[in-house]
Amino acid sequence: MKKIIITLALFLSAIALNAQDYGETWLSKQLVYTSLEEALGYPDNVEVLDLSNKNLTAVPAEVTQFKRLKVLYIQGNSITNLPSGLFQLPDLRQIFADQNSISQIPVEITNLRKLKRLSLANNRITDIGPLTNCATVESVTLSNNLIATIPASISNMKSLKELDLSFNKLTSMQAALTEIKSLETLLLAGNSITSVPAAVANFKSLKVLYLDNNKVRDMSQICNITTLTRLSLSGNGIITIPAKISQLNHLQRLILNNNSISSFPLDLTKVTTLEFLDLSNNKLTRLPNDVSKLTNLFDFNLCNNLFAQFPELLQDLPALKAVGVSGNKTEMVPPMLGYNRDLY
Predict the structure, then answer these.
(1) Of 327, 275, 343, whose CA–CA distance to 335 is shortest?
(2) Per-residue model confidence as pLDDT tens digits over 111-133
């Protein structure tokens, strides 16, 4: 389960920066040097260097010779620190250093005035303070580290759009995050967060929030983030879906599997923008007739609940193409429900 969530989180955090920001369109057209020796033969031409999975214990000192370097890949090594020389490269915009043994983010990282993306998943980082002074960074991936607190200074990251802090040691969701008005994606799955501050209503651009496998029992405050299009709260021990869910009038994907929900509230049927709804592994026994209002619903997962029968009204949902029905008291479904639909 953990591997599945990590994969999903990494997928969601893959941001495609536009061409002038040296994103994926630009990268696809570049020569990627995968050999340090070859790159040293053309130091003035090296803009993308891939030294991932090379059994490195340190970033080679020679990397500082590549003054035009924009993208550096050093994942899957045994690197313990990022050397100060790396932060003297004036054009460096993206650093991918996942799956190493890095324990600190050097304060010199603020020297990278053009840095847009930093990925340090699966390392040993405890303090993200130095990073919070990087005003140009748009995407940060720090999943699977040892981070227990988010400093108030994170509000300085005025350009940040994506932040992945999944599978760390967080016990609370600091209000300072809500001061990042540019933030669009926040991934906090696999921590020990117990509550969400009222300040989340201050988010202005947040579209994606993942809080899977935490301890958030009450999702009322989250319902004040009216810009959300994706919300995932699986495995939190949630018992009820609050009436305020109807405020999420842009929500397209709602994932609430592996909780203890026993009632499908009428207010959820007012979220007519829903396209994907996962309520599997809960305690539902029935659906209200108003579920027919979910006319954009494409995939509806009701697996492993307590349904004795499935309502025929499901077959009238015009967009519905997939329905999860397995693992209930009965797997008998209305005959027409399976017509041109995938039952799983």
Answers:
(1) 343
(2) 999 999 999 999 999 999 999 99
Which string of b and e fits 68-90 if b means at least 16 CB within 10 Å? ebbbbbbbbbebeebbeebbebe
Whether 218 maps to a domain, the answer reads: no
Whether 308 has a pLDDT exceeding 60, the answer reads yes
Q: Cβ contacts of residue 46 below 8 Å, gap of 6+?
A: 33, 39, 66, 68, 69
CATH classification at residue 67: 3.80.10.10
H-state helical runs in the chain: 2-12, 24-27, 36-40
Q: How far is Cα 224 from Cα 82, in angstroms, rounded to an integer?
A: 40
Query: Is 207 a member of any domain?
Result: no
For residue 181, being part of any structural domain is answered with no
User: Model pTM?
Assistant: 0.91
pLDDT at 19 over 70: no
CA–CA separation, 1 vs 264, rounded Å? Answer: 25
Residue 63's domain comprises 18-115
Adjacent-strand bridge partners of 71: 48, 94
Tell me the C-alpha distance between 70 and 135, whole Å. 18
- 144 CB-side CA count, 13 A: 18
**Can you tell me the distance from the alpha carbon of 277 to that of 310, in angstroms, rounded to the nearest whole number?**
16
C-alpha 49/C-alpha 70 separation (Å) is 8
Q: By C-alpha distance, which of 277, 312, 279 is closest to 297?
A: 277
Give the HSE-up count for residue 260: Cα atoms under 13 Å, Cβ half-sphere. Answer: 8
Coil, helix or strand at residue 268:
helix
Structure tokens at 76: 């899957």
